[in-house]
Amino acid sequence: MIHDLKISRPGLWFPTIWIYLVPFSLESGFLYDTNFWIGLLFVTFPLNYLVYGLNDYNDYLSDEINERKGNFLFGARSTKKQLSTIVKKVVLIVTPFIIYFTLVSGFKMLLLLLFMIVINIVYNFKPFRIKERPPFEICIQMGYVFTAFFSVQLNDLQDLPWQTVLYLTLFAFQAHIAGEIMDIEPDLKAGKKTTATVIGRKSTKLIMLFLLFLETFILSYWFQDYVLAGFLAVFSLWLILDTFLFFKEKPYSLSQMKLFGLAMNVFAILSMIWVLYSGKIMQPVF
After folding, report:
1. 75 pairs with which residues across the strands?
2. Cys-Cys link to 11, which of 26, 73, 75, 97 (CB 3.0-4.6 A)?
3. Contact of 219 with 285, CB cutoff 8 Å
């Protein structure tokens, strides 16, 4: 069970939790709703076990030589025997939730959940295996946004404005690129093709920086959320210093990657609180 928990990467649960919480506001009284808590439970271990379990099932070679693996922050380092049971476990863990959510929210919810599963199959398995078809492995990360659609459907919330959908898509792109940058060396050794391995560390960082600038602009002018925009502006400043002064093309050490991972979780928790308190990200002014 501990190994399975590592596979789900608790240190990387923050994207699904963050996106799940976006449609809520503190004024809605959701804390007293049973469906809210069951949905929140689903987007932690079960959903991430689906996402990362299928990912690990097909990434044995690169994970075996990846020094940041083997912990709760970045995921497990699994043997082939452990990986052989993942698909079965995914089905056993996720199916009860699918049945419950379908009974509660209807056929539309079933289609939504099946679509989320299909996206992960297309991403990980041949003949599609989008994860090794750059830059489409970045584009398909928009699948994370369906966590917000799931939240809206389950909790009968306000539909997402298109501006919010766009922002969440950019957020998902940015989060994925950060992982690719950290994994360049093991991915190259394993012969895994990603955007970062093709164009290099510095160019990938510049793409990430562009996304951060775009997100900051959207938050400032479309949502007038200067607090969250300020968070991203500080992150952008750090990435500029990282790219042009401190690290440039150099890989991060394991201790540095763990520090970055912890920092991302602290930022996620603080920003979740702010998003729930302000509600600005659901109220575009443009």
Report:
1. 71
2. 73
3. no
